[in-house]
Please model this.
Amino acid sequence: MKEEKIKNIVKKMNFLDKFGLEIVSNIGDLCLKDQEDKKRNNSHNLENGISINKIN
Model:
């Protein structure tokens, strides 16, 4: 009985470990995507600023 409980707990811990790693990985991906979007927006803003200055 005790051994069965321990095995069950270990299985649950392993599942949570994998689940936790997926969450961390997804958060990391979101952060990278957000940074890429910010860089893209910044470069567009710079281009727009430069072209407005040329017109003036």
